[in-house]
């Protein structure tokens, strides 16, 4: 495979300063709505990048479960690798790879654990099988086989048979409070448009154009 020869032009559009909303959350909402209308697969999927205490980075795809002016929310096992990383170093990055639209959104910020009440409310809204799976899986731990995982799931199904499934104390969420949000639009000849909002404090943002 001649991977070094794989290339194509990005011709779907451009991004000018005048196209942007006043703030990054409004602009993100606009682009997310367009991603949904374009019927792309998993528009809420985002790559979460963390680094552990030694500086070793890790990445994984998680699903965005909410966003507003205070930040971007996702949920996870609080004993997972990502949670250990965040405890050691709360500085993280998010990437929304909307390739079909030749777009990316990159968020840089700080992860803050959600209050129990917020995690409880979301957990209660999950499908029952997902609730049970949260109990059954010791996320990121080594496991002997798939059969063991399925046995743990079956045991949890039996445990909660006929009852509501409570949120495990080891399961919760994080809000990524952004200090920079970049909007990337592919352009011809690799002269891509990159416009970034940088937080100035007090809810104010400065917009800069970056070289591609």
TrEMBL record:
Q: Which domain of life is it from?
A: Bacteria
Q: Identify the cofactor(s).
A: FMN
As recorded in UniProt, its EC number(s) are: 1.4.3.5
Domain Pyridoxine 5'-phosphate oxidase dimerisation C-terminal, by residue range, is 171-212
Sorted alphabetically, the keyword list is:
Flavoprotein, FMN, Oxidoreductase, Pyridoxine biosynthesis
Q: Cofactor binding mode, per the note?
A: Binds 1 FMN per subunit.
- What one GO molecular function would you report for this record? pyridoxamine phosphate oxidase activity
Q: What does this protein do?
A: Catalyzes the oxidation of either pyridoxine 5'-phosphate (PNP) or pyridoxamine 5'-phosphate (PMP) into pyridoxal 5'-phosphate (PLP).
Family membership: Belongs to the pyridoxamine 5'-phosphate oxidase family.
User: What does the subunit comment say?
Assistant: Homodimer.
Q: What is this protein called?
A: Pyridoxine/pyridoxamine 5'-phosphate oxidase
Q: What gene is this protein translated from? A: pdxH
């Amino acid at each position: 495979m001649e991977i070094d020869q794989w290339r194509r032009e990005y011709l779907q559009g451009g991004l000018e300063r005048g196209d942007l909303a006043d703030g990054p959350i409004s602009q993100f909402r606009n682009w997310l709505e367009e991603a949904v209308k374009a019927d792309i697969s998993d528009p809420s999927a985002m790559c979460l990048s963390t680094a552990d205490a030694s500086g070793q980075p890790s990445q994984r795809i998680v699903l965005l479960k909410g966003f507003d002016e205070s930040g971007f929310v996702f949920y996870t096992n609080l004993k997972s690798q990502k949670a250990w990383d965040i405890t050691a170093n709360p500085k993280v990055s998010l990437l929304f790879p909307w390739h079909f639209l030749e777009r990316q959104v990159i968020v840089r910020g700080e992860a803050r654990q959600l209050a129990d009440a917020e995690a409880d409310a979301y957990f209660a809204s999950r499908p029952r099988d997902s609730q049970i799976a949260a109990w059954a899986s010791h996320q990121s731990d080594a496991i002997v086989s798939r059969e063991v995982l399925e046995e743990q799931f079956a045991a949890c199904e039996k445990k909660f048979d006929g009852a509501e499934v409570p949120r495990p104390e080891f399961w919760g969420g994080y809000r990524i409070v952004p200090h920079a949000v970049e909007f990337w639009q592919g352009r011809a000849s690799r002269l891509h448009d990159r416009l970034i909002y940088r937080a100035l404090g007090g809810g104010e943002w400065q917009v800069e154009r970056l070289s591609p």
